[in-house]
Amino acid sequence: MSNVWAVCKKEIKSYFTSPIAYVAITVFLILVGFFFQSLIWWFNTQSMQMAQNPYYLQQMNINQMVFSPLFHNISIILLLMIPLLTMRLLSEEKKINTDELLYTSPISINQIILGKYLASLFVLLVMLLLTGFLTILTFVYGNPEVKPILIGYLGLFLMGAAFMAVGIFFSSVTENQVVAAVLTFGSLLLFWVLNWASYSAGGMWKEILNYVSFFQHFDDMTKGILDTTDLVYYVSFVFLGLFLTHSVIQSRRWR
Amino acid sequence: MIEVQHLFKKYGDLMAVKDLSFSVEKGHIWGLLGPNAAGKTTTMRILTGYLPATDGKANIAGYDVFEQPNEVKRIMGYLPENVPLYPEMTVQSFLHFVAEIKQIPAAKRKEAVEKSISLSALESVRGRLIKNISRGFKQRVGIAQALIHDPQVLILDEPTIGLDPAQIIEIRQLIKTLKGDRTIILSTHILAEVTQTCDGVVIINEGKLMASGSLKELTASLQEKDGVFIRLREGGKEKTEHFQNIPGVDKVTIRDDGYNIEWTRGKDSRDDITRYIVERNWGLVEMRPLAMDIEELYLRVITGGTEQ
Fold first, then answer.
1. Which of A13, A17, A104 sits opposite B73 (nearest CB)?
2. Residues of chain B with a CB closer than 8 angstroms to some CB in chain A
3. Where are the alpha helices (DSSP H) in A87-213?
4. Which residues in B lie closer than 8 A to residue A7 (C-beta atoms)?
C-alpha cells in the first residue's frame, strides 16, 4: 500500500506543481458557475411567473429544475475535461523513459496503475467539492432536498471515476498524449450516446444498449434514485478499465 | 554474483539476444561491449527485470531474475541509457520519491537521500528543478537514484554518454569509488573506459557472446605471438635484419620510435635480444612487452568473429 501511496502522492504533486490542475479546475468552475447561474435565473423567473398561482408554485422543485439539469451539464463538462486530465498519466512515463525506473523498482504494475488512478480521482474529488460552494448557496437562500443532491454528486463522482478509468487505459495504449486524449474522448462520447441507438433497436438489443450507455445509469442518479445496478455498472467499468490498462502494460513488456 | 545462462530474447522476428551466457564475480566491475544493436541494452533490461527473456536463466546474488523479480530489484540499482527523470521535480524530491518506491523504510529515507546526494556531488543543485540542470548533473542524478538503496549490484547503461570530457572523468572516478563490495556491469562505447574502470569484459555482437573474461585472459587467448617493443639510442632500418638473426625471433617491424620484435608464444627471447644489443653497444633506451590494447582486442573479437 505504501507503494501505491508513493505513486499517488507523486502524481498529485505533479498535477498541482504544473498548471494542469489549476487550469482544469478553474475552467471547470467557471463553466459550472455559468450553468448554475443560468439555471437559478431561469428558476427564479419561473417562480415569479407561478407566484400568482399557488398550485403551480407548489409544483416548483429546485432539485428537479436546477440540480438535475446542473448535474447533466457537469457530466458533459467532465466528458470534455477528463481526457485532458488522464492523457499524460502513463503515456508520459513511456515518452520520457521513467517507466524504466518504475518497472525496475520493487513495485508492481497494479500498484503503479492504482497510485496514478487514485491521484486522478483526487483531482476529480477536488473539482466536485469546490462546486459544493454553489450548493451551499442554494441551502442558504432556498430549501432543496439533501438526499437527491448527495446521490447526484455520487453519480457524478462514479461517472467521473469511470471516465478516468477509460482515460488511464488509453494513456497506456500510446505514448502520444494527444492521441490518448482523442481516443478517450471518442470512446466516452460513444458510450454516452449508445442509448440513442436503443431508440431504434428492439428487444434484447435495446436493453443491452441501454445498460451499456453511461447516460441511462447517470440519469437515474441525477433524479435522486439510487439503484445498486447503477453502482455495479460504474464499479465494473472502473475495474474493467484498470484491468485492461494492466493487460496493455504487461503485453507491451512481453512483445 | 551475476550468472546468465543461455539467454534468448526475441522481438517479433528479430532475435536480439542469442544464447548468451556469462558470469561476473562479486565485487568486480565488468564492461559490456559491442557495436550498436549488439543486444547490450536488451541484456541489461532483462537483468533488471524490465523485460522478460524469451528463454534462458539469469541469477543475481542467488535470486532468479524471472522467478523472484522483486528480490532482485531490491538489491539492484539501474541507470538506463536514457536517464529516467521527472523534469518538473526538484533533485531532492525526485530522490525522495525513488527512495519510497525502492522501499527504504521511512525512518531511513532522509538519510539515504542525503547520502546519495553527497556521493553523487549534487549538493549545489538539490533544490533545483531537474529540467533546469545540466546534462552532467542529470547523469549524476541518474546515478544517485541507482545508488539510493545501497544496492549490491549496479547496472549502468552507457553512464558517460553525452558528457563532456571533464564530466566523463568525474563520472568514471565516481564509478571507481562505488566499487567496494558492489558488483557492477556497465556498457560503453568508449574502450578506454573499460581499461580504466573494468576488471573484465563481455563482448557481444548481434546478440551473441563473442568473448568474456578478464582483459588479461582475453588478450592472452587472442595473442598468437609474444614480443617486445624496444627503443635504441640510434635506430635505423639496417638493424631490422640484425634482429631477425637472433634465434627464435619470427618477426621484426620497424616503427617511428623503435622496433616491435615478436616470437612464437611460449618462448622468451628477451635475454638474447638484450645481450645482442649490449654486445654491439647500440644503447638500449626502452624495452617493454608488446600487449594487445583494448581497441585491437575489441576489433579482433568483433571483426574476426571469434567466439570465445
1. A104
2. 11-12, 45, 48-52, 70, 73-74, 76, 78, 80, 82-89, 93, 97-98, 100-103, 145
3. 91-95, 98-103, 109-141, 146-173, 177-200, 203-212
4. 101
Residue A65 has what DSSP assignment?
I
Q: What is the pLDDT along chain A (255 residues), one digit of tens a residue?
A: 788 999 999 999 999 988 889 999 999 999 999 999 999 999 888 888 887 777 777 777 888 889 999 999 999 999 999 999 999 999 999 999 999 999 999 999 999 999 999 999 999 999 999 999 999 999 888 888 899 999 999 999 999 999 999 999 999 999 999 999 999 999 999 988 887 877 777 778 887 887 888 888 888 888 888 889 999 999 999 999 999 999 999 887 766
Does the structure's ipTM exceed the value 0.95? no
Q: Which domains does chain B have, with CATH numbers?
A: 2-220 (3.40.50.300), 224-290 (3.30.70.980)
Q: What radius of gyration, in Å, describes the C-alpha atoms of chain A?
A: 20
Chain A environment of B73 (Cβ under 8 Å): 104-106
What's the CA gap between B153 and B60, in Å, rounded?
A: 8
Strands of the sheet containing B284-289, edge to edge, are B249-254, B259-264, B225-232, B284-289
C-alpha cell at A139: 441551502
Give the separation between CA B294 and CA B274, rounded to whole angstroms. Answer: 28
Residues of A in contact with B89 (CB under 8 A): 10, 13-14, 17
Cell output for A45: 423567473
What are the boundaries of each domain within chain A? Answer: 2-254
Q: What is the rounded CA–CA span in Å between residue B203 and residue B207?
A: 10
What does the block give as the cell for A83? 481526457
Which chain B residues have a beta carbon less than 8 Å from that of A14? 86, 88-89
Q: Which residues, 6+ apart, have CB-to-CB distance to B114 below 8 Å?
A: none
